[in-house]
Amino acid sequence: MKILLAASEVVPFAKTGGLADVAGALPLALEDLKKEIIVAMPYYKAVSSSKFKTVRVKKDISYSVMGNNIKVYFIENAKYFDRDGLYGDKDGDHKDNLERFSYYCKRTLELLKEINFKPDIIHVHDWQACLIPVYLKTLFAGDAFYKNIKTILTIHNIGYQGLFPKEEFPKLGLDWSFFNIEGLEFYGKINILKGGMEFCDIINTVSPTYSKEIQTKEFGFGLEGVLNKRRNSVFGILNGLDYSIWNPSTDKFIAKNYSFQSIEDKYKNKEELQKTCKLPLKKDVPLLGIVSRLAEQKGLDILAEAIESICKMELQFIILGTGDLKYHLLLQEKVKKYPKVISLHLKFDDVLAHNIYAGSDIFLMPSKYEPCGLGQLISLRYGTIPLVFKTGGLADTVKKDNGFIFGKYTKEELIKTVKKATKAFEDKEKWTETVIRAMQYNFSWEESAKKYLQLYAKATSQ
After folding, report:
1. Less Cβ crowding at N or C end of the chain, within 10 Å?
2. Are strands 189-191 and 185-186 parallel, antiparallel or unpaired?
3. Are residues 315 and 181 in the same domain?
C-alpha cells in the first residue's frame, strides 16, 4: 500500500502543537509495518534555517529523509512560506492563509504525478490540508493518474476550521457552484475544513469518544450536521505515544530511572521534584502535577473556582504552563497564600515537564474537552495516576482501574474527586497496585498505526 501523509506541520521539521507530533510519529510506525509512505509539508522559514539535510528535486521542491527511508517533500514558495510563524504572528493569523494553503494543497497533488508516486491513500490532517480531497474530486478529476486515489481526513480539533470571507473564493480556482451548503459554504463564509469533510472518503478523529462528541451541538462547532450526514464514514483512532521519548526507564531528564518492576525508585524522583520546586520533603503527602496550557478549555475555569478548597487539603501541587493572564494572576495569588502547598512555573520547560510526570503521584487534567490528550498517556506510563473529566480521549484512556474520573463539569465534582484520590493515596498497598497497572497500559503508535491501516483498507475497498 502506498500512502501520502499531508500535514502543515511535522516533527522534527516544524511544530506549533500536537498535529506535528502525530504527523511525525505515524509515518514512522507505518514504515515499521512495511508500508511505503511519503510526507508533504510546506517549506517554512523554520525548516530552511535549520540544519536538516535536504535534496533538491525541482526548483521549488526538495526533500529530507526521516526514519529509514521516508521522504518528506517540502513545497517551496518564498512568497507564502518564507516568514516567521507557521500560521500567523504577534498580530494574528497571516492575512493570506487561504492562498498559502490552497497553493500547498494544489502543488502537493501536482508533485505526485511529477515524481510518479500514485498513492492508494492520501491522509490529510486538519483544515490546512483539506483542499487536497476537494481538488482531487474537482480540478484533478479528469486526469487518469489521480483516478481511484482515496482520501482520509483526520480532525485534530474541530474548533479550527479555516474560515475566510466569501469574496476570497475565486482564489481557490474553483467554480462558484462549489460555494454551497453541500460544498465549502458555511453561514456565508468559506469553510475549508467543511470542504474537506464533504469531499474526503473517510473522516477520522483522534479518539473514539471525540468522534461521537463532535456529532453533537455542544462539541460540533457548527459542523455537527455535516458529521451526522456522514456518520457512517466517521471513525476515531486514539493518538499513540512515542515511548522512545516518554519512558521512565530510559528518560535522561529525570533524577532516577525506574519501571513498574522498580517502583520504589519513582519516589526518588518525587523527592528531587520537591527539592527543585522548594516544597517540603513529604513522602506521604500526595503530590499533584499539572503540565498544561492555562486556559478554559483545559479546565482552568473550574480549577480556579476549586483551588482554594484543594489547597486546604493535605497535599502538594506543582503547576507548569502558560496561558490566560487571569489564571496567571489568580495562581500567583494562591502561591503567596499557600507557599508550602503550591509551586507555580509560568513557562515552557521540557525538563521540568518530564520531572513532573515522573515525580508526581497524581496528574490533574480536568479539560472541558480534549480530542485525544497526551498528558494522561504520559502520566500513565510514568505511574502518575491521572485525574480527569470524562471527555474525548480522556474518557477512552482513563478508567476506574488506572485513574480517577468525574462526570459532571463542576468545581464541586472536581473537589470531590481530588478528595477521593488523596484518600486512595493513603492505602499504600492498593496505590502501588494501581501505579503498576497504569504503567503497563500500551498506547504505542504501533497499535494506532495498525488501526489506521484497517481504516485505509476500508477506504480503498469503497
Report:
1. C
2. antiparallel
3. no
